[in-house]
Amino acid sequence: MHLALTDLFRARWTDEIHEEWIRSVLKNRPDLSRERLLRTRDLMNAHVRDALITDYQDLIMPLSLPDPNDRHVVAAAIKGRADVIVTYNTRDFPADALAKYEISAQHPDEFLVHLMDLAPGTVLAVLKRLRESLRNPPVDVGSYLSRLEQHGISSFVAKLREFQSLL
């Protein structure tokens, strides 16, 4: 989210995508409340310019994907004129199904590595501010990188390790 505020890319989502991530977080983090996550959703919508895509539903039906429940993501990407769908679930967004819409699916690790290649100073500054904002308890650089690595973005973390002194 902090990187979305840099304008290095245009983050886009829908209420349906919000509902999916909220359900997933609640499943994995029962210590969090739905109300808290709804507040996060509202802050995301308020702070990321033009992120919320609406009126994409009529594009869903003609789409064909391995998991029909993912069609809304592609429909939103088409409506929002997105170039990339960032997802851990790239196998459900095959290149041949997306090519005709000039959209690709990228794993978050690949996406973040591209951002780092594009604007390393910006990415490092954002991550440093984010890490330094973690105060209860404070998080040292090594622990921060380990936490990031736990999210399946090891290539990105490897790049960050090259600049560890700047974090």
Characterization of the model:
The chain folds into 2 domains: 3-107, Rossmann fold; 111-166, no CATH class. With 167 residues, the chain is mainly α. Helix content is 50%, strand content 4%. The longest helix is centred in the N-terminal third of the chain and has 14 residues, at 15-28. The model has no long low-confidence stretch (mean pLDDT 96). It has helices at 15-28, 34-47, 71-79, 95-99, 108-118, 120-133, 141-149, 154-161; strands spanning 84-86, 104-106.
Distance between the termini: 18 Å
Query: What is the CATH domain class of the largest domain?
Result: Alpha Beta
Strand content: under 5%
Number of domains: 2
Overall shape: globular
**Count of runs of 4 or more consecutive helical residues:** 8
Order of helices and strands: HHHEHEHHHH
Could you name the CATH topology of the largest domain?
Rossmann fold
Biggest pleated-sheet summary: 2 strands, parallel
Contiguous low-pLDDT stretches (5 residues minimum) are none
Looking at the overall shape, the CATH architecture of the largest domain is 3-Layer(aba) Sandwich
Q: Average pLDDT value?
A: 96
Helical amount:
40-55%
Outline of the structure:
Helices cover 50% and strands 4% of the residues.
List keywords for this structure.
8 helices, 50% helix, 2 strands, two-stranded parallel sheet, globular, 167 residues, Rossmann fold
Give the SSE layout.
Elements: H1 15-28, H2 34-47, H3 71-79, E1 84-86, H4 95-99, E2 104-106, H5 108-118, H6 120-133, H7 141-149, H8 154-161
Helix pairs in contact: 1-2, 5-6, 5-8, 7-8
